[in-house]
Amino acid sequence: MNQVMDYIEMKIPAKPEYVGVIRLTLSGIASRMGFTYEEIEDIKIAISEACTNAVHHAYPKDEGGEVIVGFGIYPDKLEMMVADSGKSFNFTQTKNELGPYTEASTVEQLAEGGLGLYLIETLMDEVSVSNHSGVTVFMVKYLGGERENHDTSITTRETN
């Protein structure tokens, strides 16, 4: 089924003080879509974790890198992508390159990404991570609590 998607992309400096701008934007988008207050808070925590991880780990200190955040807005779900490569992405193409969601070892993920990735996995309905030319975290939250119908595991795709 081909759904209509609205797309919003933001580029922020890789500095902690700009993560709040992403949270505010997300809050506006999710509220407009009809997510509950609790769901919006969960999504804000997840996107904050992904952005904070990019800010703290992507670039050497004072290098002045950028974080790209994309929001794919559908009638029934919100898809979010956070990338620290500093490059804009073709949202649909990047999403497809991440591949299908398959079982992954959570223990391995925790070792790589720490508690943040575990928290993201817990709060979101689908999560996928790629470390091809920087790290990209892809997250999905369904409207109306459709979580039980969807795979909640993390997929990691490493490309060297």
Q: How would the blueprint of this fold be written?
A:
Blueprint: E1 6-13, H1 19-33, H2 37-57, E2 66-73, E3 77-83, H3 91-97, H4 106-123, E4 126-130, E5 136-142, E6 154-157
Parallel strand pairs: 4-6
Antiparallel strand pairs: 1-2, 2-3, 3-5, 4-5
Account of the 3D structure:
- By secondary structure, this protein is α+β, with helices and mostly antiparallel strands.
- Mean pLDDT is 78; it is low at 101-112, 148-154 and 156-160.
- It is built from four helices and six strands.
- The longest helix has 21 residues, at 37-57.
- It has a six-stranded mixed β-sheet, with helices on one face.
- Helix 2 crosses helix 4.
- The N and C termini lie far apart (33 Å).
- It has a single domain, classed as Heat Shock Protein 90 (2-Layer Sandwich), CATH 3.30.565.10.
- Helices cover 38% and strands 24% of the residues.
